[in-house]
Amino acid sequence: MIAHILGYEGAGSLLSYLKSTKHWVDALSVGPTHINAGTELFKISMSLTKEGLRTSKIMFHTNAS
Question: What are phi and psi of 44, to 5 degrees?
Fold first, then answer.
């Protein structure tokens, strides 16, 4: 369910906002990633634009401290 919500690409979606409004991403991929038998991770991948790279600390709330 979460993968469908985050991965939705239509009007009002996370991708639409980050791509059309902010110009931070070109593509978004969401879903489970198989690691080994019995282990999967939930993965969110974004292809960032140059502007997205410049603002990545804001997007991901990173802190260098």
Answer: -120, 120
Domain boundaries, the chain: 2-60
Q: DSSP character for 61?
A: T
- Checking phi first, is residue 42 left (phi over 0); if not, alpha (psi -120 to 50) or beta? beta
What are the backbone angles phi and psi of residue 24, rounded to the nearest 5°? -100, -25
Chain-centre distance of CA 9, in angstroms?
Answer: 11
pLDDT (tens place) for every residue of the chain, 65 residues total: 888 888 888 999 989 999 999 999 999 999 999 899 999 999 999 999 999 998 887 766 655 55
